Amino acid sequence: MSPDDFDRLQSLMASRAGFRLTRDRMKLAEHRLGPVARREGFETVDAMLAALWAKPVAGLGWAVIESLLNPETWFRRDRVSFDTLGKELLPALGKARGGHPVKIWSAGCSTGQEAWSLAIAAQEAGVAVEIVATDLSQRALEKARSGAYTGFEIQRGLKAETMLRCFDQAEDAWIARAELRAMVHFARANLVDAPTDAHQFDIIFCRHVLGDADPARRGEMFDNLERRLVDDGCLFLGPDEQPDGDSIAFRPVAGRKGLFVKSPAALRRAA
């Protein structure tokens, strides 16, 4: 891959998906693009990129972008966040909503482990929820919808008791049970796209996603998250993630790393 090709990839990622591709990832990018080139019928990555630059095709462009996204995830990642959710927020919101389901958005759900972890937390708390889990990658969503994970994947974050209670074993796979599936709906969404409807959520999980965002687009993403969150709702980021100067829409909750609520400025703007 030439430096010029990499520069074009950087522009493609930033403009279409809002994510940055740093130059130290050039070798990783070439490695990830190899299977995409073969799947799309090209002999080499260079040949695929030449075809893409000569005649931009949406399907090929998105296939390239999806391969370069960071798919890293596991069950109950950052366990403290799930403890806060299950022991404090869900019981409180369940009571405040008067029996109506608590609405949760897993934004950037990757292959689904976070979404199923949210469903497990709700089941353990005895609170009715509706979970929408979205990602930019269709391939990641296909796996997420299947609810099927290897022994290694299922044991990465789940205790044996939880694994046996919430998943059925089928040959070499562990598959999410029907009661979990009833809580979760998977869909494709791009975090840089502004909301086109008034649907809002009580809780948003958007963890380990915006750290890879293009700095020029992070503010847009935070504003879109704020528009999707009810005024008394909560946003979970990764424990070391902060909006910082990208947005004035959220303020941190004292003593709760990674937990945010709407700022007074955002509430005044909504009013």
Span between termini: 51 Å
CATH superfamily of the largest domain: Vaccinia Virus protein VP39
Q: What percentage of residues falls in helices of 4 or more residues?
A: 40-55%
Count of individual helical segments: 12
Task: Tell me the CATH architecture of the largest domain.
Answer: 3-Layer(aba) Sandwich
Total strands: the figure is 10
Q: What's the CATH first level of the largest domain?
A: Alpha Beta
Query: What profile does the largest beta sheet have?
Result: 7 strands, mixed
Share of residues in strands: 15-25%
Describe this structure in words.
- It is a single chain.
- By secondary structure, this protein is of the alpha/beta class.
- It folds into two domains: 3-68, Chemotaxis Receptor Methyltransferase Cher, domain 1; 79-270, Vaccinia Virus protein VP39 (Rossmann fold, 3-Layer(aba) Sandwich).
- Helices cover 47% and strands 18% of the residues.
- It contains twelve helices and ten strands.
- The chain has helices at residues 3-17, 26-39, 45-54, 58-68, 79-96, 113-125, 138-146, 151-155, 160-166, 178-181, 215-228, 264-270, and strands at 102-107, 129-135, 148-150, 167-170, 173-176, 184-188, 201-205, 229-236, 250-252, 259-262.
- Strands 6-2-1-7-8-10-9 form a seven-stranded mixed β-sheet, with helices on both faces. A three-stranded antiparallel β-sheet has the order 3-5-4.
- Helix 1 crosses helix 4, helix 2 (26-39) packs across helix 4 (58-68) and helix 5 crosses helix 6 (113-125).
- It is globular, with a radius of gyration of 20 Å.
- It starts with a helix and ends with a helix.
